[in-house]
UniProtKB/TrEMBL annotation:
HAMAP family, per database record: RPE (MF_02227)
Entry protein name: Ribulose-phosphate 3-epimerase
Catalyzed reactions: D-ribulose 5-phosphate = D-xylulose 5-phosphate
Species, as recorded: Klugiella xanthotipulae
A Pfam family this chain is assigned to: Ribul_P_3_epim
Keyword list, A-Z: Carbohydrate metabolism, Cobalt, Isomerase, Manganese, Metal-binding, Zinc
Recorded GO MF terms: D-ribulose-phosphate 3-epimerase activity; metal ion binding
EC number in record: 5.1.3.1
Function, in words: Catalyzes the reversible epimerization of D-ribulose 5-phosphate to D-xylulose 5-phosphate.
Cofactor(s) demanded: Zn(2+); Mn(2+); Co(2+); a divalent metal cation
Pathway it works in: Carbohydrate degradation
Amino acid sequence: MSQRINPSILSADFANLQSELDSIRSADLVHVDVMDNHFVPNLTMGLPVVQRLQEVSPLPLDVHLMIEDPERWAPGYAEVGAYSVTFHAEASTDPVTLARGLRDIGARASLAVKPGTPIEPYLEILHEFDQVLVMTVEPGFGGQAFMAETLPKLLLLDAERRRHGLDVWLQVDGGVTVETIGVAATAGADTFVAGSSVFNGVPADRIAELRAAAQQHTASHRDDTLSR
Ligand code: DX5
Ligand code: ZN
């Protein structure tokens, strides 16, 4: 099964974003955190900055919208060419219609849930999404500790996508390090956002270490263990 490492530029040097993007070329996508100071108590960047990142980034953009009223704002990120647009279930009034709109524009549609939000209500609409983001910290800030209590949601999502043969990516975001990436991969995650653990060192080395750690732990290992 393919896995992806998506560094979060929330932990990058905002004064040198172009060189920071170059430093993570060996990753798969670049994770861009948009915060509006309403949905989360922090403020980052908006559409004009993301549009410029889209123009210069060697990697496709994985945009994570931590904003209120995604129905109003999310399509604009798809229109500037973001490869994937994630909006939060807690903020959306109609996730299915919004996801269809994002796909119509040409982006991958992705649904995020905060640590305390149950995933069961969304399992029956899983086919409407290209990715589900299970937040493994409370959204808003980098550098927080991984919340292992979110892992059962990945197990449920992984079982559901297998049952229906869906090609939906399962992303984790928050506290992902070489120590925690394994349990997330074993639970079914295949797409890993890492901010501080990439940019606190030499990014290319950190990406390689995360990739190696993830490859040793996949959902198929879980099956092997269970069937023994
Ligand atoms: C937090 C953001 C994350 C953040 C992760 O709300 O959504 O993408 O950058 O940072 P780390 O990997 O440091 O937990
Ligand atoms: Zn994020």
